[in-house]
Automatic annotation (TrEMBL):
Coiled-coil ranges (or none): none
PROSITE patterns, per database record: HTH_LYSR (PS50931)
Stated family: Belongs to the LysR transcriptional regulatory family.
Keyword list, A-Z: DNA-binding, Transcription, Transcription regulation
Superkingdom of the organism of origin: Bacteria
Protein name: LysR family transcriptional regulator
Gene Ontology MF terms: DNA-binding transcription factor activity; sequence-specific DNA binding
GO biological process entries: DNA-templated transcription
Listed InterPro entries: LysR-type_TF_proteobact-type, LysR_HTH_N, LysR_subst-bd, WH-like_DNA-bd_sf, WH_DNA-bd_sf
Species for this entry: Pseudoalteromonas luteoviolacea NCIMB 1942
Any Pfam family the entry gives: HTH_1
Amino acid sequence: MDTTSRLIMLLEVVEQGSFSKAAELRNIDRSVISKQISKLEEELGVRLLNRTTRSFSLTAAGAEMVKKSAELRLLLQDTVQMAENYHQEPRGLLRITSSSYIGKYYLLPVINDFQKRFPQVNIELRLDDRVIDMVSEGFDLAFRVGEPRDSSLIARKIARNRMLILATPQFIETYGEPKTMADLAELPAAAYTSNHIRFESISYVDDKGKHQEQPINPVFRSNDGEALLEKVLSHTAFCTSPAFFFADHIDHTQLVPLLTHVSLPDYSAMYAVYPHRDLPVRTRLFLDAARHYIGEAIPRWEHNIPGLDKMYQPK
C-alpha cells in the first residue's frame, strides 16, 4: 500500500469515527487499519493520532493531513472520471438553452453535426430570450450574450462581439450619409429591447479617448434580431447591432456600415454557461464542438464582413 492509499484510509477512519467502522467499510480486519496508519506516521515522521483503548483524537498535524486527504480524494475521483470520459461513448439527454437567434443560426448546425457523430445523445434545445434559472429548470448548458448574474454559475467565453452601425444604400440615399455621431440623432433608428436591455444610445470613444454616449431616435423596437433586420432592410431605419446579428447581409447591395472611422467598444461577449465544473462527457464534447464551430479568436460571422478588421477600431 502506498502513501496515497494510507492517507485515504486515515480520512476514512476520521469520517467513520473509529478504526472498527473504517475496517467494516473496507471489509478488512481492524488490525490492518491500525498497522497502515502506524506506517503512515512512520513515513511522514509525525504523529497523526492520539490513541486510547476506546477512542482517538487528531493531532494538529493529523488534522492538516485529513484536510489535505479530502482534497486528494476529490482530485483522484475527478481524474478517474476524466479518464472514463475519454473512452465512454457519449449518450443520454443534453438540455441546452439559448436566445432564439443564437440557437437557430449558430447552435442548430452544431447540433446536427454532433448527433451524426454521437447518435446516442438526445438534445433538447430551448429557445428563450429570457434568462432562466438553469439549475431549477435542469439545463446542462446555456449560450448567452453577457456574463451571468448568478455567480454560482460557470461562464466560459465563446466569442467576442463587435458592434456595428448599419443601414441600406437606399436609406443613405433618402436620408443622407451621417458624417458624425451627432448626425445619428436626427435619423430614424431600429433598436433592440427586452426585459433587461433597452438601447437608447450608442457608446463610442471620442478623439480624446473618452467614452461617450450618443442618443438615438428609435422609431422601431424589437427583442427579435430577424425583426430588426427586416426593418432595416425596408430602408426606413438604421440600426446599431452586434456583428453576429447581421453579418450575412453586409455588402454594398444590402447593408452598409456607417461611420466606420468611429471607435466602438465591443458589445458583451458570447458565453457558454454551465452549473458545475465537472461536466459529463456529452456536455464537454458539445461545448468543444460549439467553440470550434463559432470560433474563439475570430468568430465565424466576422469572416462574412468585408474589411471589418479596419472598422470601428480604437484610436
